[in-house]
Write a structure and sequence with these properties.
By secondary structure, this protein is mostly helical. Helix content is 66%, strand content 7%. It is built from 4 helices and 2 strands, in the order H-H-E-E-H-H. The radius of gyration is 19 Å and the shape is elongated.
Length: 116
């Protein structure tokens, strides 16, 4: 799938999760949902690049200097975007009903992580 198709799929997935949120709140968080979908797919792409090429690269200021390892720019971008994605997801998670409709297990480790 293309990146746009993957983003659209993630956007549909997120909107399905938040379909029961009141219309006025949905209108307010629509942009956040769109950013979250974009960020998740971009993070997946960055992860694939980092898995293939690593987090560091050899770099030299000139031909006369010995190369040294430095963090690849995509690694820095990944870390920054991942932090922002986690913040956005926390905002979105806080909008979900607290009771979970009786579906949430009290010992669910994923929900414990998300809430922390």
């Amino acid at each position: 799938m293309t990146k746009d198709q993957r983003i659209d799929k993630e956007l549909r997935r997120l909107k399905k999760i938040y379909k029961d949120i009141s219309k006025d709140k949905i209108d307010l968080i629509d942009g956040i949902i769109q950013r979250a979908a974009y960020m998740r797919i971009t993070l997946e792409d960055y992860e694939a690049d980092l898995d293939e090429n690593g987090y560091v690269e050899l770099f030299s200021q000139s031909d006369k200097m010995e190369p040294y390892e430095r963090e690849r720019p995509v690694a820095r971008l990944y870390n920054t975007m991942n932090n922002n994605y986690q913040k956005i997801m926390k905002q979105l998670t806080d909008l979900l009903p607290k009771d979970g409709g009786g579906k949430e297990r009290p010992d669910d480790p994923l929900m414990g992580f998300i809430k922390s």
